[in-house]
Amino acid sequence: MDRKINFFSSKNRERLKSQLTSIHFDLIVIGGGITGSGICLDAVTRGMKVCLIEMNDFASGTSSKSTKLIHGGLRYLEHFKFNLVHETGSERAVLKRLAPSIVKSEKMLFPIKNNGKLNKLSISIALSVYDYLAGVRIKDKKQMLSKKETELKEPLLKTDGLNGGAIYSEYRTDDARLTIELLKKANKMGAFPINYIKANEFIIKDDKVCGINCLDTINGDSFSLFSSTVVNATGPWVDDTLKNENNKLILSKGVHIVVPYKKFPLKQSVYFDAIDNRMIFAIPRNNITYIGTTDTKYSLDKNNIKILKSEVKYLLESVNNYFSIILTIKDVVSSWSGLRPLIKEEGKKVTEISRKDEISVSDNGIITIAGGKLTGYRKMAERVVDIVIKAKNHKSFNKCITSNIKLYKSENLNEIKKEIFSYLLKNQHSKDQVVLLYDIYGENVKEIIKISKTLKSFSKVNAIIISEFIYCFENEMCQKLLDFFSQRTGRVYFEIEKVSDQVQIIKEAYKKLKGISEKEFDLERVELKSYINSITTFI
To answer: How far is it, in rounded angstroms, from Cα 343 to Cα 349?
Structure first.
């Protein structure tokens, strides 16, 4: 295969498909979320021939529907899971080092109330243990606050029963972008990820899986892929993929809502008690504030998750109960809902079930990874690939090296950031627009700027949005309008009011790049509108 060709470009999709059928892979990964992407990168860096298939767009399931935090495992302290706190906390620092553009420190305020679950002393002790186990940097260690200091940190807090607070460190990310960047890196290192390819059935030889019959869900093509090993990393769809009647998963539904920042102008992120004493987050981000999450058992259609008015009202009531504001359902401009794949634990409610991962090997050789959290994706991948190597006795493959595989190439990130901000601010972009762009693409904004300089007939602002789409189409296997506005940029959540205008701006460039007609473009626009309707209409 000609590696000079960018096989992570949408324009080379058909060439990629034809090439894949001629390769016998060491490993095929089913599932293009954070778990599958981590496995893909780990395996290829050890020297394996790897293919990853995803039935929809990359990160379109659970991996774009989280609270967008790299958790350090604070909640695990309640259950005395010290090893887990140590692992997840340490892993945060690794991810920050590997992807500094999209993994950023986020100070979190933990208000302490007289009637809360924990008092000031117990919270102080818990956070000190947390800092120690997680290896938190000195500048990020917890700070205990008086009542007055807590009020100054967040003036919107209701003061009734307020007894002080604590500041501790989390890490913020964009879950979908992290997934995309992992796949981009894996592709550059020799792996072959491809989206909109469904695993229809397994090919069995001598009672072992040796390949997959696949369906291209875009054009209906059928073809077969062959591999020594198959890993099932499909998250909530794990049981469906195995066609296993003895389901190992229980699904928990998590809903987040988005309101304009002017309606909920938090000075900083807050971790607070919901109306049922669960803990939820309120996180300001540019011109919006998002709130979440719920945690309820789910057993309906995994491909069509409806958001209920009762779920939205639960989050709104929790905010109104804790802060000196009144939010109504009319203030909610967007939302997202995803499914947590949890390992069944008899006799426990979904809120009580551990977020642990579990790896199993079926009689026909399929390796399945289920459960887990965003923070732990790299260690999960390492364990899975270790099992792949052991199962097939692949002595020639290397040990895990992903702790040293940086997702961005630049060392002097601060200088690059200054350069990007300086150029865009001088060229008609507002500060909010620039911050959002950098949050999405990190140092890759430089490549987008480079493309924009070739678009002489457009305004500076319009040239950037068109260049964004061109960049995503040619470098990130962006196949649809929906892919661009959801997984690639998150604009349907964080800038939903601008989406309609931006669709019109990129229209001609989009049609030209894809080689599609006005009618075909309109079909994609309808699909995008349908999705927007689903995240703004509550039943």
So the answer is: 12
CA–CA separation, 142 vs 389, rounded Å?
A: 41
Helices 413-426 and 445-452: crossing angle, nearest 10°? 30
| Residue that has been written with the tokens 């988005």 in this structure | 258
316 sits in the region (left: phi over 0; alpha: psi -120 to 50; else beta) called alpha
Which amino acid type is present at position 253? Answer: K
| Buried b or exposed e, range 288-317, using 16+ CB within 10 angstroms | bbbbbbbbbebeeeeeebebeeebbbbbbe
SS (H, E, C) 453-505: CCCCCCCHHHHHHHHHHHHHHHHCCCCCHHHHHHHHCCHHHHCHHHHHHHHHH
CATH superfamily of 251-343: D-Amino Acid Oxidase, subunit A, domain 2 (3.30.9.10)
What DSSP element (H or E) covers 249? Answer: strand 249-260
Domain boundary assignment for the chain:
10-63+176-248+357-404, 88-151+161-172, 251-343, 413-536
Task: Map tokens 């006005």 to a residue.
Answer: 518
Find residue 230's DSSP bridge partners.
Answer: 28
Asked if 249 and 238 touch (Cβ cutoff 8 Å), the reply is yes
Give the residue carrying structure tokens 């002790």: 125
- Residues 429, 423: Cα–Cα separation, whole Å: 9
Instruction: Please state the pTM of the whole predicted model.
Output: 0.95
Specify the CATH number of the domain 413-536.
1.10.8.870
Average pLDDT of adjacent 10-residue blocks, the chain of 539 residues: 80 95 96 98 97 98 94 68 76 89 91 81 86 81 95 96 93 95 96 97 95 97 97 94 76 97 97 92 95 95 95 98 97 97 82 82 93 91 95 81 88 85 90 89 93 92 95 97 97 96 96 94 97 97
User: What fold does the segment set 10-63+176-248+357-404 form as a domain?
Assistant: FAD/NAD(P)-binding domain (3.50.50)
Give Cβ neighbours of residue 468 (< 8 Å, ≥ 6 apart).
Answer: 437, 441, 448, 484, 489
> What span, in angstroms and rounded, lies between the C-alpha atoms of 323 and 439?
28
Tokens of 329: 């359902």
- In the beta sheet, which residues pair with residue 270? 109, 282
Domain 251-343 and domain 413-536, same fold? Reply is no
